[in-house]
Amino acid sequence: MRNHTRARQAAHLALLGSISLLAALIGCASNNATSAAAQPAAESKDEHAPAGPSALDPIKALAGTWECDFDADGKVDCVAEYKVSANGYTVTENLFVGTPHEMVTAFHMDGTSVMATHYCAAGNQPRMRDRNPGKNSFMFEFVDATNLKSPNDSHMHSLKMEIIDADHLTNTWTNHKGGKPDGTLEIKFTRKKG
Predict the structure, then answer these.
(1) Domain that includes residue 139, residue range
(2) Is the torsion defined by CA of 61, 58, 141, 52 positive or negative?
(3) In degrees rounded to 5, what are phi and psi of residue 22?
């Protein structure tokens, strides 16, 4: 008899617990619905509309995979991937994809200028602004950097981006050290087909 009473009490407690949980869930749901309905919308519908036409559009058109052949031997030496993200407001370039030196550069608008933030394999992050607005040519020049003790330390200082046509792109990176140019790397890309 004692075991039967305990079993009935346990079942009763379990039932009360389930009812309490169900009531709490219903209360939360109705409170959330009420509070959501009572609060004004935090963002207007247009506040996060997709990016409209801008100077970033030629870089957006690079979306896809690109390859380079540094020594013209017919073999791929370098891969870059361009991806449009953030509702059309940002383009990311992944350079040297699949290598330990893979780097990312994020392109975005700042007012009417295009900015580039380069996340370098050297561990610093130079920000550059386009100083030569043009339809298919960009000249990004150093503005500032994070994780760089001094502007005299080695860092990527500029990027010249020339969009030749829909399938050809040349990027010329210039490194600075001690306040002056310290090497240039020109990368001629061809869009990967298929």
Answers:
(1) 57-191
(2) negative
(3) -60, -45
